[in-house]
Predict the 3D structure of the following.
Amino acid sequence: MRVSIVGSGYVGTTIATAFAELGHEVLAVDIDQSVVDTINRGESPIHEPGVPELLAKHSGDRIQATTEYDQILNTDVTFLALLTPSDENGHINTSYIEAATESLGDTLASKETAHTVIVKSTVIPGTTEDVIAPLLESASGKTVGKEIHLGMNPEFLREGFALEDFRNPDKIVLGAETPRTHDQMEAVFTPLIEQVDTHVIRTGIREAEIIKYANNAFLATKISLINELGNICKEYDVDTYEVADAIGKDDRIGERFLASGVGWGGSCFPKDVAALIAAAREKGYDPTLLSAAVEVNAKQPARMLELLASHTDLSGKRIAVLGLSFKPGTDDIRGSRAVPIIDELLTRGATVVGYDPVATANMREQYPDLSYADSAKSALSGADGAVVVTDWDEFSAIDAETFGTMAQPIVIDGRRIIDRKQIESVTNGRYEGLTW
Ligand SMILES: NC(=O)c1ccc[n+]([C@@H]2O[C@H](COP(=O)([O-])OP(=O)(O)OC[C@H]3O[C@@H](n4cnc5c(N)ncnc54)[C@H](O)[C@@H]3O)[C@@H](O)[C@H]2O)c1
Ligand SMILES: O=c1ccn([C@@H]2O[C@H](COP(=O)(O)OP(=O)(O)O[C@H]3O[C@H](CO)[C@@H](O)[C@H](O)[C@H]3O)[C@@H](O)[C@H]2O)c(=O)[nH]1
């Protein structure tokens, strides 16, 4: 099948490589010439395990990238994988997907055969039918339901595991209003469905739109709940991870997403929970629990610095921030918990030295004046305290000798990645876990 994907960011590039691997001819369309050139050179515009190898394999053959929308005319189905960021009030900003939809509609005006358009971006219920459909119709002069088949297929991949998640999905959600559009959408996934055991869920467009938000809201709230329980456990000197291990054995709770600590970030949870809250309020419903989940999450970085401040005054001190990305396996710093941590450290007059295996360049763009170390070892050397913000594996290998090079070996671990016992000889009771 000939598949075009508009938007070659994290989602667009990942699904482009995955669809090519499934045997489809893929056209990646992006307005950013450098993204297009990178893909056409067989290199990856994103940091994502496995994606560079697949681009090297398929680029110039099954994957072509372009800035020219006209080339979409040679494809049968188009995915819209544009960013839908938050505006200042938490609502989604649909301007990028609207601009792309208009360009797509202009292009489809000269298409002689029917075309299927699938919204991949995360959008609030009603966006596909009330915003995208009318734009497509006015720009193309065609009718949705006749010459244009419109569906919504939310994406559930996690950064750092994007290809793995694509290949082993818990579910594939196909939102459409006619069996014919459902069939056309499913046809794109048939080579995958034949390979794996998954749930293919046929539903309506609005249902598909909100399933995505419900999924993320549930997971973010689950983490906030374990963090709240963790804060209580800490007051009783109880290790929340032992508690999580036990409660996770209850199938109704489940073992995943119970890692407590400094909280959730990323390009999705913060903006998606904010968008759902904003949309609900617009409908006159005030979502108490979701607002509380956000509040608990916002407080965890401050709790971490309170723990640090209980061991040392922060003003004028050199503090190592270990981990800058929002989670391991990615260079993405969007919504990273490192950001409020750094802001608060600077407000309290500390000197910050940051280290991350891959995200330093991105953080440097946001904080050009911070000091950045090229290893955890050099970040720790001479530091008066360290906070561990991201659970990169390499942090678990930092030994007592390295922590011993700190001016004051005080370690506050926000991810339970450091082995307390292993570094006890130098920290001498000044290792603290956020929830253990
Ligand atoms: N990042 C994730 O892990 C993830 C997972 C699931 C769902 N989502 C959702 O998928 C959508 C895309 O997210 P992302 O992280 O891939 O975004 P992104 O910001 O990484 O990529 C968006 C791309 O769209 C391009 N673009 C912007 N305007 C364009 C236009 N008019 N025409 C063509 N290209 C244009 C940009 O240059 C960029 O390359 C969002 O709605 C997001 O919420 C993201
Ligand atoms: O037990 C846990 C699990 C995660 N996190 C944090 O939660 C955030 C999000 O982690 P994760 O879900 O692994 O990463 P994302 O790539 O943001 O993926 C989420 O957001 C995507 C975009 O919508 C969805 O597609 C995925 O299904 C959803 O997991 C990160 O800051 C993690 O550190 C925890 O604190 N504890």
Notes: The mean pLDDT is 97. The chain has 17 helices and 14 strands.
